[in-house]
Design a protein that fits this description.
The protein has 85 residues and is mainly beta. Helices cover 5% and strands 31% of the residues. The longest helix is centred in the last third of the chain and has 4 residues.
Length: 85
């Protein structure tokens, strides 16, 4: 695991199936960021993780991180479809 050149993305080797947009957490379940890109060979792919604001790379680097559920997108409510009774 290391920092990419030119930006603050974290680069790591994937040990499990993953997809772009999947959230990444620490061992306590604290949200760290999300998978921004997957690249490299199919056998041993790498992930570029875009860290959330306020997450310091030094506190994450070298510690285990976990793949979580993808962030839930909130559906926009249609105000016209809402009726009063």
């Amino acid at each position: 695991m290391h920092q990419s050149r030119g930006n603050s993305n974290l680069i790591m080797t994937l040990e499990a199936d993953a997809r772009i947009g999947l959230s990444v957490t620490d061992k306590d379940g604290k949200y760290l960021g999300k998978i921004f890109d997957i690249f490299g060979p199919v056998d041993t792919p790498y992930a570029s993780i875009k860290l959330s604001e306020g997450v310091e790379l030094g506190k994450v680097e070298g510690k285990p991180i976990y793949l979580g559920k993808p962030p839930v997108k909130k559906k926009k409510r249609d105000k016209k479809a809402r009726r009063s009774r």
